[in-house]
Write the structure tokens for this entry.
Amino acid sequence: MGNESVPHNVADEKEQYVHAMFARIARRYDLLNRVLSFRQDVRWRKMAVEMANVEPGDAVLDVATGTGDLAFELSRQVDSSGTVIGVDFVDEMLQIARAKAARRKTLGQCEFRYGNALQLPFDDNMFQAATIGFALRNVSDVTQCLREMTRVVRPGGRVVCLELSKPVWPVFRHIYRLYFHRIVPLIGRALQGVDGPYRYLPESVDRFPDQERLAQMMREIGLQDVMYRNLIGGIAAIHVGTVR
Ligand SMILES: C[S@@+](CC[C@H](N)C(=O)[O-])C[C@H]1O[C@@H](n2cnc3c(N)ncnc32)[C@H](O)[C@@H]1O
């Protein structure tokens, strides 16, 4: 896959692959999300925002914001007196987020900036909460990303991760696996016209830490009161930790 447009600070092979992939699929990303999740992604983002526990007036960061859907959901919560900053390292995704923001003038302030999740361009303790949706799986160093999110959140604020995860219901797990590994790549190819990304998707979930392991990783970097909520039997999960 060509990587001519990869910025200089996109370091390793996984980052380059992920960067090139999202640059390529940006235009149809939202459509694929809705179709493949049967619109559940919309409901899950709302739940993640509830678990971020933010209020009108708060400043919140959405890491790897993509086309901005989680940031927009946060902006409803913080209202016009608050601020949401979304960062991502793929300009094509940010352009779509900015275009959507321009059409949603009634919501709170949403600003979209270039930034790498592994080296967030913010000072310590700047935000009341930091969220990441469907993206922790894509970064090349999960612990470093969680550390960065923790660093920029004030003591008492929350770090929230919404991510595809490992189904826990026994029979359902097998049916879902069939859907995810066999059907999703086919739908992905039909709607995107390319093969790779929607094969990468199930493989990346397989490689990602399960619910318990991710909770443990959050505790290990010092987050407190770490808990998670399984969504539809663990197809996805929301993890939350509080900054000391
Ligand atoms: C599956 S999309 C999720 C977008 C959005 N958060 C959502 O809820 O739909 C993953 C996003 O993570 C971004 N991403 C992956 N690795 C990143 C990194 N190291 N720094 C910044 N953004 C990254 C990609 O560019 C992509 O926009």
Remarks:
- Residues 15, 18, 22, 64-66, 69-70, 88-90, 93, 116-118, 133-135, 138-139 surround S-adenosylmethionine (CB under 6 Å).
- The chain has nine helices and seven strands.
- The mean pLDDT is 91.
